[in-house]
Write a structure and sequence with these properties.
metal-binding; Pirin; seven-stranded antiparallel sheet; Pirin_N_dom; seven-stranded mixed sheet; Quercetinase_C; iron
Length: 253
């Protein structure tokens, strides 16, 4: 079993810990979700390896390239993107269409920004429980109304009731909280929680978190209600950090 550093109270991953890069029409904020836990040689959060908060400008094409041994969730909040891959699929992804690539032993893809709107998205690199599995790609339509003031389940382990799967003990939810609304975090026994403010501001007990900030809560501890001080978009990961994971991923390892 992997050894997971404990979360004492509420852990914080601040924007100052991110790797910020800008390459013309491509701006990237790379987040290491366990960087504040002081785990030796590992800045991941169990099976949650790396998160890229990206902005892609109109006209950008990310040419065909390979990923291996990452489960990659493409979660978009604005814009539209054409995805083409080595499985012969060509699909448009957007805020109402989620994509999950289970790269396995090797998967190639290309992405092109469509239209005149900037894309803002999370590219989430999950570490699979084992390397070199069969590659796969999934697309699912989303209903934006399902995240209005409530948690919407987006991804989960194989065999769960989530609309897409990753080969890891991990769940992903999102929500939109209007100003003044509050919510309790989803929970599952044995799963720690990693809450990210995509945009907006929240308070969780005595802790405040603005855009690009994450809060961590231990699965066996209480978590305060999360209240939005302005219109806010949130995502939360539930992760069993004792579950086995591979570190052979192209990015997430």
């Amino acid at each position: 079993m992997p050894s997971a550093a404990p979360i004492n109270g509420v852990g914080i991953v601040s924007p100052e810990t991110h790797q910020v890069r800008s390459h013309g029409p491509f701006q990237l904020r790379r987040i290491h979700p366990g960087i504040s836990l002081d785990q030796q040689d590992d800045a991941g959060f169990g099976g949650l390896g790396v998160i890229d908060h990206a902005r892609l400008q109109p006209g950008l094409v990310v040419r065909m390239h390979e990923h291996r041994n990452d489960e990659i969730i493409s979660y978009m909040r604005s814009g539209r993107m054409l995805h083409t891959d080595s499985a012969g699929r060509s699909e448009v992804i957007s805020p109402d269409r989620l994509m999950v690539m289970n790269a396995g032993r090797g998967f190639y893809h290309e992405e092109k920004v469509l239209g005149d709107d900037q894309i803002e998205m999370l590219q989430i690199f999950v570490r699979p429980e084992a390397a070199d599995a069969e590659p796969n790609v999934q697309f699912v339509a989303l209903d934006e109304a399902e995240r209005d003031g409530q948690w919407r389940l987006l991804a989960g382990p194989e065999g769960s009731d989530a609309p897409t799967f990753v080969r890891q003990a991990l769940y992903l939810y999102d929500t939109h909280l209007p100003a003044g609304r509050s919510t309790e975090l989803p929970s599952k026994p044995g799963f720690d929680r990693w809450l990210y403010v995509f945009r907006g501001n929240v308070a969780a007990g005595e802790h405040k978190a603005g855009k690009h900030t994450a809060l961590m809560f231990a699965g066996d501890g209480a978590s305060p209600k999360v209240e939005a001080s302005e219109d806010t978009d949130l995502v939360v990961f539930l992760v069993d950090r004792t579950a086995r994971f591979s570190r052979e991923g192209t990015i997430g390892g």
